[in-house]
Amino acid sequence: MIIILKQEIDQQELDNLMTWLTNMGLEIHMSEGANTTIMGLVGDTSTVDINLLQALDCVADVKRIQEPFKKANRKFHPQDTVITLKTNAPVTSHAAARSSQAAEDFAPAPNSNSSQSIEAKIGGGHFMVIAGPCSVESPEQISAIAAAVKGSGATALRGGAFKPRTSPYAFQGMQAEGIELLKEARRATGLPIVTEIMDLQQLAYFDDVDVIQVGARNMQNFVLLRELGKINKPILLKRGFAATIEELLMSAEYLMAGGNEQVILCERGVRTFEPLTRNTLDLSAIPIIKELSHLPVVVDPSHATGVARYVRPMSLAAVAAGADGLLIEVHNSPQTALCDGQQSITPKQFDSLAKDIAAMRIAIGQCSGQ
Ligand code: PEP
Ligand code: MN
Questions:
Q1: What's the pTM value of the predicted model, to 2 decimals?
Q2: Which of 54, 229, 245, 266 has an alpha carbon 20 to 30 Å from 304's alpha carbon atom?
Q3: Does residue 237 contact residue 263 with C-beta atoms inside 8 Å?
Q4: Is 164 in the pocket of ligand 1 (CB under 6 A)?
């Protein structure tokens, strides 16, 4: 961190500043130029309040050299984080054989009748396709979609049980019952399940969920993040619609600071002036996050665009930009869906997209296609 001092300063105030910084364990290197005096701070500056420094009378400007996030920072953890989801294979398989010969890492276990456990990985070259309806609506709906997406090569099933809806009059999700139905779908397909938590009071329902999603609206719910930082379960953290990349990484830091290092970041678009899409997908966030952090990044083209026909091109663009996975809304009857039907693709469209994703991964040299 660098502090640029004003030209005419009160010596007493400068002494106080230096004592304060030294007491924080920081080393100070003064550099006096003809017009400017600069203080270089060496040590752990992550706890220094930059706004407080900026407000001091003797300070002209403050610049961070090091990012404020540590555990999520690639500088201190150069290798990609790989997160593994494990479930028991189904006793009986309702899923058809995979129709798309995708890359090995987004292929479910080839023999889904065996009792071996199923592993799905993300990060470090492993690609994860998370698919399912916006909300779980009925046993028939979730089991049909789960079987279909598994047959097409999805490696995780996502469905909302607790739904954050803009209107209090809209369908709020099947809640605890929805989670039970997801578990049933997992038993039938072996796919790990991903579902959103909205409030800490719901945590007990998530004991047997494989990945807990924190939605865009809760990205900066620091109380929730702190509690989820104490548990040993992967968290899918979605970017808030007005959040910077650094703010997303700082929210990941909340989870990691508590000891939970299994964080998957999700780019789902940010709100801009553009009305033709629900949000604007920030594709450049993918290489930027991958440069700054070792955590895996998935892209959600469904919430990013809000339009089913844009899901395919944006999925392929996300793969090309280096995403580690995709989160795609799939519904067997989008026109009657209780939530987000307009952006949901059908199982048939998903099957075709899964093949294109695999082809794109081969085209960019992300996997050999063997
Ligand atoms: C969702 O994933 O169902 C959802 C509500 O998305 P977001 O939090 O990105 O708006
Ligand atoms: Mn949705």
A1: 0.89
A2: 229
A3: yes
A4: yes
255-313 pLDDT, tens digit each: 999 999 999 999 999 999 999 999 999 999 999 999 999 999 999 999 999 999 999 99
Q: What angle do CA 316, 319, 320 make, to 5 degrees?
A: 85
Using alpha carbons only, give the angle 340, 341, 346 rounded to the nearest 5 degrees. Answer: 125
Q: Residues 177, 83: contact at Cβ < 8 Å? A: no
Give the tens place of pLDDT for each residue, 108-160. Answer: 445 444 445 788 999 999 999 999 999 999 999 999 999 999 999 999 999 99
Nearest ligand for residue 337 CA: 2
The reply to whether ligand 1 has any atom less than 6 angstroms from the CB of 159 is no
Which domains, and CATH codes, for the chain? 2-63 (3.30.70.1140), 83-363 (3.20.20.70)
- Bridge partners (DSSP) of residue 327 are 130
- With a CB cutoff of 8 Å and minimum separation 6, the contacts of 340 are 134, 135, 302, 303, 329, 331
238 Cβ closer than 6 Å to some ligand 1 atom? yes
- Report the nearest atom of ligand 1 relative to the CA of 134: 3
* 238, 239, 265, 298: residue to mutate for ligand 1 pocket, most atoms within 8 A of CB: 238
- N residues, the chain: 370
Residue 303 Cβ inside 6 Å of ligand 1? The answer reads yes
Closest ligand to Cα 195 = 1
**Ligand that lies nearest to the alpha carbon of residue 213, given by its number in the listed order:** 1
Task: Give residues with Cβ within 8 angstroms of 338, minimum separation 6.
Answer: 135, 137, 171
Give φ, ψ of 71 to 5 degrees: -70, -30
The b/e string for 247-278 (b: 16+ C-beta within 10 A; e otherwise) is: ebbbbbbbbbbbebbbbbbbbbbbeeeeeebb
Place of tokens 């009071």: 201
